[in-house]
Structure formats: C-alpha cells, structure tokens
Amino acid sequence: MQTTVANIQTIDPSTGEPLERFEYTPPADVEKKTDRAAAFQRKWRNEDFARRAEVLRATARTLRSRSEEFAATATREMGKPIVQALAEIEKCAWCCDFYADNAAKFLSEENVATNAARSFVGFRPLGVILAVMPWNFPFWQVFRAAAPALMAGNVMLLKHASNVSRCALQIEEIFKEGGASPGLFTTLLLHSDRVADLLADRRVAAATLTGSEGAGISIASAAGRNLKKTVLELGGSDPFIVLADADIPAAVDAAVRSRFQNAGQSCIAAKRFIVEETIYDEFVAAFADAARGQTIGDPMERATQLGPLAREDLRDALHRQVEASVERGARIATGGKFVERPGFFYEPTVLADVKDDAPAFTEETFGPAAAVTKARNADDAVALANDSSFGLGATIWSRDVERATKLAAQVESGSVFINGVMASDPRLPFGGVKRSGYGRELSHHGIHEFVNIQTVWIGPAK
After folding, report:
1. Which is catalytic among the residues 77, 88, 172, 233?
2. How far is CA 150 from the centre of its chain?
3. Sign of CA dihedral 168, 189, 424, 289
4. Crossing angle, helix 49-65 and helix 82-106, to 10 degrees?
5. Angle at CA of residue 271, ends 266 and 275, nearest 5°
6. What whole-number distance in Å separates Cα of residue 62 and Cα of residue 386?
7. pLDDT of residue 2
8. Which of 37, 46, 330, 358 has minimal CB crowding within 10 Å?
9. Each residue of 44-96: pLDDT tens digit?
C-alpha cells in the first residue's frame, strides 16, 4: 500500500535547513516504469557486449565531465566533504570503465569436457534487478551494483534513500546522457513500505541491497517469500588490529582516515581498534592527537576533512552509544560532544579502554567515534576481532607480513587488509559474512551474482 506521506523533504545536514521537496512516484507510474523496464530488458539481453560497453563508457564520460555538479549534490544532501565526494564520482566512472573492459571476459562461455559432443557453461541475464541503496555513498553504492548488472544484460530499478533523492534522479539522468534507452536504469522515489510489493512483482527477478541489518532482514524475508535471489551488503563493526611490531605512525595515519572519512559513516570504516598492550598507550595518545587535528567545517570547503552526519537522529544515536560506553568504563581520550554550530556535527571521538560489552564494541557505530580495546597478544586480538555479530572487513597492522597473512586466515570477515586502509575496489570481490550479509559485489564474482549460470549439453554423446 502507498504510504500516506505525500512527499519527501531533504535537509542540508550542514545547516539543518530544508533543501528540496520531492513527490513520491505514483503507483500508476511505478507500474508503467516497471513494465517498460521488463520490456526493454528483453531487447537489452540480446545486445552484444560492445554495445553495452559503449553505454557504460559514455556514462563514465558524463560522470567525469559533470563531476563538480554531482559531487556538490552529494555534499548538499548528505554532508560528505566535497573532496571526498569528487573522489566518489571518479570511482563510479572507473567502475563503469572496468566492467566495460572486462565483462565479456568475465561472462565468456566455459567449455567443460564431458561425454557430450560439446558441453559448456553460459551466463545469461536474470532480468529486472531491484536495487535498494543507502545514502552514505549515494553515487558509488549504486554504480558498483549497476555497472556489472547492466553489462550482464540485466536492467535496474533504483529505490534510493529518501534523503538523497536529487542524487537518485541525477543517476538516472547520467545513464540517459550516456545513451541508455528508457528502461535500462529507472529511479523510483518510493517509501520503504513499497519495496515488498516490488519484490513480489513477477517482473522483478532479483534484488540487491546495501543498508542496515534491519533493512537486510526485511528484504531477505520479502525475497524469500517470493523465491527471489538477493545480495545483501549490511552493517559492519570492522576490527583494526595493531600488533606490537606495527609501524605506529603509519597505523595511526590509516586509523584516522579509515575511521573519520565520510564522518565515519561507512560500513567498512574501522570501528574497533584492537591494540596489543605493549604499544597500547602510545597508540591511544597518538590516535587521539591526530583525531583532534581533523578540520571540521563547511563540507563545501575543500579544506574540510570532517563534515556533519547525514541526519540529526544519526548524530543523537551515536552520542547515546558514546555515553553508554563511558558508563561501562570507557574513557574519552578526545571528543565525545556535539560541535557548537548549526547542522549535525559531532566531534572526532576516540574512546579508550573500551570493554567487550560496551555499545561501541558490540554495536555498529555509524559516525566519527572510534573504540580502542587492549589485547594481550596477537591471538587475543584475533579473538576480540571475531567477537562480533558482524564480519564485513578487517585490518591488520604488523611489520611481519607473513605472520599477519596467517592471522588473516583466522579473521571472520569478507575482506582483510594488511598494512592498508580497507576499501572496495572493482577488481576485488566485496561483501561480508555473519550479519554483515551474503553474496559478493565487484570483480568477476560480483557480475556472476545476477546471472543464470546455465549448463548447455550438446549430443549425441561421444
């Protein structure tokens, strides 16, 4: 049933002031656009890879030529510092080019020797893919799902987070400017209570979601009732393990970038910093000092490193987690307060001596607050890292790369980065385990998620 809310109001998180108002897509238009997508997919699936790549490369050119415009939209709607927003747009263009260059190879037929005259595995598109996407990387999250799906011969319907509605509309515009026909990529402005109806629609073949654990449960439940394939990239509470032999200045620099980029609003941001006891005090002091050095300000200014949180309720929820962790014995090494200025700003915060029962350790903290916990040794650090319901990413810092690589095999997460900042990359598979979701995005693994892996056997048998 269509929600009774008539429209969407976006808010500038740097000021708290209204930005734009948008009408929800009427049910009749949802029906028309879904039908158009399904009809076009029957044509698009028969286009060769060269034609699909042509659209993706043109889309990449549009992203680059209008990058300042698109980055400014992201900054206005969700508060990302403009320099980070520009980097996000470039990453989207790279992803489009990557799949334009590689999809044909990733989806080439695989011959298998059997008793047949010939037998092979083919990769066929599924159809219409519903993408339910979050606000924290409003362009990247969409393009990393769309580029492989479209190159595989699918089409996409986008239900984006309401607070980035202008971004959502611009993404559809970007594909159109790249030469996409109507139906290839369609933005629908919908309330979340409409998603189950779309998943039940026979024209929708599958869904991909990046979002919270609760949203993942909701999507998986609705998809399960309708036997629809899903890929879920959910929350994270990524451990950042610092061993006694680590390069501490390098680890601290990476810790600041990993925790405070995008105001800490990233599923794969480092959130739990697990440090061996012999270097614990040194690391905490250096980390807190570096955190205090972050430049807070207007996200449209290029010097700004830390902008506002995307919404007021998110800032309030983070503050409650910080206060509750302090009540359980954590110590505020720096930060822990609202920034006294308009908008939804929060000080870069480092909590030391965080216990394994504190909210900052057990829950996902989606904002600029880092939890630092002491480990007795490397094995204890890995045990603490795995003491979480999440399993998205992890980081290990050590000068002994061979030992770190062996420890990585013991970490329960979809990715482990050694001596570097955890990030998604089109060349590598991305996704989680446990309550961080299932399935993979990116690389050749990601493009295979939304295809029918079809066996073809040609007789007579030899």
Report:
1. 233
2. 18
3. positive
4. 170
5. 150
6. 42
7. 43
8. 46
9. 999 999 999 999 999 999 999 999 999 999 999 999 999 999 999 999 999 99
Please tell me the number of Cα atoms within 13 Å of 243 on its side-chain side.
Answer: 21
Using alpha carbons only, give the angle 298, 299, 301 rounded to the nearest 5 degrees. 75
> What's the pLDDT tens digit per position in 432-444?
999 999 999 999 9
In this predicted structure, what is the pLDDT of residue 1?
39
pLDDT of res. 101: 98
pLDDT number for residue 232: 98
The active-site residue, picked from 95, 267, 364, 412, is 267
- Helix, strand or coil for residue 284? helix
Q: Is 47 a catalytic residue?
A: no
Complete domains list, the chain, with CATH: 7-234+436-458 (3.40.605.10), 238-425 (3.40.309.10)
Q: Compute the Cα dihedral for 156, 162, 167, 170 and give only its sign.
A: positive
Q: Is 267 a known active-site residue?
A: yes
Of 248, 272, 287, 289, the closest CA to residue 375 belongs to 272
CA nearest neighbour of 11 among 156, 147, 116, 164: 164
Name the pLDDT band for 6 (thresholds 50, 70, 90): low
Torsion over CA of 39, 209, 168 and 135, rounded to 10 degrees? Answer: 180
Copy the structure tokens of residue 26. Answer: 């009427």
Phi, psi dihedrals of residue 444, rounded to the nearest 5°? -70, -25
Residues 6 or more apart from 88 whose CB is under 8 A from it? 71, 74, 80, 137, 139, 140
Please state whether the peptide bond connecting residue 460 to the residue before it is cis, i.e. omega within 30 degrees of 0: yes
pLDDT at position 357 is 97
